[in-house]
Amino acid sequence: MSDDEQRGRGAASVHRVGGLLGDLQSADDQPVAPRRRADAERNRAQILSAAEQLFAEQDPRSVTMGEIAKAAGVGRATLYRSFPDPSSVAVALLDEHERRLQGQLIYGPPPLGPGAPAGERLAAFYLAMLDLLERHLPLALGAETGPARFRTGAYGFWRVHVRTLLVDHGVEDPDPLIDIALSPLSPELFQFQRHQLGLSAERIGGSLAVFARRLLESGGGR
Amino acid sequence: MSDDEQRGRGAASVHRVGGLLGDLQSADDQPVAPRRRADAERNRAQILSAAEQLFAEQDPRSVTMGEIAKAAGVGRATLYRSFPDPSSVAVALLDEHERRLQGQLIYGPPPLGPGAPAGERLAAFYLAMLDLLERHLPLALGAETGPARFRTGAYGFWRVHVRTLLVDHGVEDPDPLIDIALSPLSPELFQFQRHQLGLSAERIGGSLAVFARRLLESGGGR
DNA sequence: TGGCAAACGGACAAGGTGTCCACTTAGCTT
DNA sequence: AAGCTAAGTGGACACCTTGTCCGTTTGCCA
């Protein structure tokens, strides 16, 4: 998605999880892809920075390409060169924030990382995602363009992770359950619960933890 | 939503559930609201009929007000008089299909209606909703305009129903769980599972049934 | 320093939205 | 049964967004 995929940063969110500690942006050069020019890099940074602010200060769903371009001080066509639509900008932004969590799921200490029972790991995952949503809700809402959400690299990562947990627990037919287990993390749902119903993040988190443990109760998945 | 609310048909989906058997459209006159004129009624019917076809034969998210108006053979402004946007047309259409299920949940035989254990009722509800999605997916997708989905009368009804089940089961803090339990029924999720992943309705239904029973296991909710 | 490919951004055409307003018509009134 | 009045209609208008084209500028390498 966005143009990361086309240009070499590759399936970034899925595999670029190295550097659990080294959080600095690792060098972005690729062996094959022609390097990005310096001005392009600079513009990209301006765009991302300006867009992050835009998404935060107005309805994320109403941000237009024109607004982003103007805020970033570049022409619209320049913006189109990097991103096909506003939501892909939000996806790129969100991606950076999600990468840390992805690393923790693979290499981190339990219960997020390997080593804890599946139910506990799922509960921990829910809480971590909730924290992510709480902190970056505008971006998550801006990224959510209907069906495109499921084609995101990040969503693919969460799927792989949850599938691992389900299989680990010995669930019978795990595949349909993957997305069912992920569905409570929908950004729009979170917004509704949090700001329409006025539920605290703690209550939602508590329910999700209960939910996770009940779903993957110790004693085998059958 | 739509203009049903403004014009007297009231919170139709939530309370107009009488007639579990009498499926014919009950008389639509209201004591207070000024009656709709005959030509307006006729146009409304044409609009709904034309729109249902449109939603079915192209990407439901791409249907525009102009297209609906043209297909219905009315002017755009006439359409705007009845519906503020395409998704509200889909909501109105879907509403009619949902009303039968709503009746069955309240007055029907178990396990859909009262009388069965909460877990069984939830499982039955999931299967019924899945069936609805399978048959009217285009409308469901057309109706799904982001956060507006949660403000739908129908969604409110499902919330009330699920809350009843949760309370009935003795769940500790039911409110945050309501929407979590409803989240697997998102039309976009269903579409993804069904047509992107290629899962059969049966497999999805099976997982949802397992899911429901595990969530509301017999033996009390705590 | 010169040249070239990459990147930029102003401009254009197409199409959607929501509203206004002059005209038509249904349905009550006498 | 004809007239009146307000509800209903639909063509048209102004505004905004989108996606692309293309002449110009700029980084980078030889």
UniProtKB/TrEMBL annotation, chains A, B:
Known InterPro entries for this protein?
Answer: Homeodomain-like_sf, HTH-type_TetR-like_transc_reg, HTH_TetR
Q: Which UniProt keywords apply?
A: DNA-binding
| Protein name, entry field | AcrR family transcriptional regulator
- Domain HTH tetR-type per the UniProt entry, residue ranges: 41-101
User: What ranges does the record give for the region Disordered, renumbered to this chain?
Assistant: 1-41
* GO-annotated molecular function: DNA-binding transcription factor activity; transcription cis-regulatory region binding
What would be one Pfam family of this protein?
A: TetR_N
Q: Does the keyword DNA-binding apply?
A: yes
In the UniProt record, does the keyword DNA-binding occur?
A: yes
Naturally occurring in which organism (per UniProt): Streptomyces nymphaeiformis
The protein's superkingdom reads Bacteria
Q: Which residues bind DNA?
A: 64-83
